[in-house]
Amino acid sequence: MARFVTIGYGDQAGYDRTDPAVREEAHKQDAQLVAAGATAGRAGPPVQVRNHDAAGVNVQRGQYMSAGLPIAGFGIIEAETIDEAVELASRMPCAVAQGVVEVWPLLE
């Protein structure tokens, strides 16, 4: 089975605008994915780490990527195909609550 990294983007305003029943179903699916072995979690404040040419570590607070919505969470899911991973991602909280979920195949 292939593994996929998911990155969810969304904000509280979009979440709050979404029907609570739709949000609840999305959270149930996330709980089922985790129970089946997926890794999922909300994103906290990031740091950037650099160690160019292994000459010394430089750490800078804040994100490197920029997007129209803040990063809300990450996951690692398993699916047979990218299409199956997309179908799972389409029911995640960020996807249904006015945000977006990126699905990245994990090359191993």
Short descriptors:
108 residues, alpha+beta, Alpha-Beta Plaits, two-stranded antiparallel ribbon
Describe this structure in words.
With 108 residues, this protein is of the alpha+beta class. It has one domain (2-105): Dimeric alpha+beta barrel (Alpha-Beta Plaits, 2-Layer Sandwich), CATH 3.30.70. It is built from four helices and six strands, in the order E-H-H-E-E-E-E-H-H-E. It has helices spanning 12-17, 20-35, 82-89, 93-96, and strands spanning 2-9, 39-42, 47-50, 58-61, 71-79, 100-105. Strand 3 (47-50) and strand 4 (58-61) form a beta hairpin. The mean pLDDT is 96.
Helix/strand/pairing category: alpha+beta
Backbone shape: globular
Q: Give the low-pLDDT segments.
A: none
Task: Tell me which CATH architecture applies here.
Answer: 2-Layer Sandwich
Strand tally: 6
Q: Kindly state the mean pLDDT as a whole number? A: 96
State the fourth-level CATH superfamily. Answer: Dimeric alpha+beta barrel
Provide a compact summary of the structure:
It comes from Dactylosporangium cerinum. The chain is α+β, with helices and mostly antiparallel strands. It has helices at 12-17, 20-35, 82-89, 93-96, and strands at 2-9, 39-42, 47-50, 58-61, 71-79, 100-105.
